[in-house]
Specification:
four-stranded mixed β-sheet, 9 helices, alpha+beta, three-stranded antiparallel β-sheet, elongated
């Protein structure tokens, strides 16, 4: 798999950056080889199909023959790697080369355009090719790096639940599907069973970007929902917000202040501080 997680210190931000770089390198190694395979596909092949969702986002699927049924009919299965890489290239065309191909929207990208792009892409230097590969920032690398750092330095099991499986909202923690008012609902990103702690993970940077501001607000919203839970339930559940990156860490003091009287059950800090907090609970 292309995802590469590097954990060589307690510094969450450094581990995330190194993991992104290692994953992008792995993505290039895989994608550049897949490009050569895609070039062998005929532009009119019925093994390539395109679908578009309600948001106008395109997805290409490439199928390979896996055998035959009892009746003698060919059996096919989607090749996930080739399908993902074709889709990635389609999005690159829509975002960066729409004028060159005479299109406006992503759903207008056709497979022949991808084959046309590959004619020059396969021969450009590696430093240029990397801009056209899958990007680590869209592969949950950040969360995995934070979780694995916690596991390594606390020596505790850290579970990554399915998205929405544990969601804090309106003073309760339920599966997101059972929550009627989802406006302020916030899903738990990880669980540390040994200390019954539920975590919300964020990497925010650079300072001043729209994304970083949005992520800080999400963290504050999680804290508010956790406070409602603590006010309603007098159990031993604990919560933590694990924030790494300059933009996020700058806001840790104000988030800690927002915790208020629930500081015995809600903790806010960067990865290294969360590690120390967990270790203090296991003494």
């Amino acid at each position: 798999m292309s995802k590469q997680i590097v954990v060589d210190s307690k510094n969450g931000a450094d581990n995330i950056r190194k993991s992104r770089q290692a994953t992008n390198e792995s993505n290039w190694e895989e994608d550049s080889n897949v490009w050569l395979k895609i070039q062998q596909i005929d532009k009119d092949s019925n093994l390539v199909s395109k679908s578009v969702n309600k948001k106008g986002e395109v997805k290409f699927t490439y199928k390979t023959q896996t055998g035959y049924s009892k009746s003698g009919k060919s059996k096919f299965k989607a090749d996930v790697n080739i399908s993902q890489v074709i889709t990635t290239l389609a999005k690159k065309i829509a975002n960066n080369n729409a004028l060159e191909y005479g299109i406006i929207y992503e759903d207008e990208v056709e497979f022949w355009m991808i084959l046309d792009m590959l004619e020059w892409l396969v021969i450009v230097p590696k430093k240029g090719q990397k801009f056209f590969c899958r990007n680590a920032s869209r592969q949950s690398v950040d969360e995995d790096a934070q979780i694995q750092t916690l596991e390594k330095y606390t020596k505790q099991e850290v579970i990554k639940p399915a998205n929405g499986e544990f969601t804090v909202a309106n003073g309760d923690m339920l599966n997101k599907k059972k929550i009627k008012d989802k406006k302020f609902a916030r899903s738990v990103d990880c669980i540390i069973p040994a200390v019954n702690a539920y975590g919300f993970l964020k990497y925010s940077g650079p300072v001043g970007s729209v994304t970083s501001v949005h992520q800080v607000e999400e963290s504050k919203s999680f804290i508010e929902e956790c406070k409602k839970y603590c006010a309603k339930h007098k159990d031993d559940k604990k919560f933590f917000v694990q924030v790494d990156g300059g933009a996020g860490e700058d806001h840790i003091p104000e988030m800690q202040e927002a915790v208020g009287k629930y500081s015995d059950r809600i903790f806010v800090g960067n990865t290294e501080q969360v590690i120390d907090w967990v270790l203090s609970l296991t003494k």
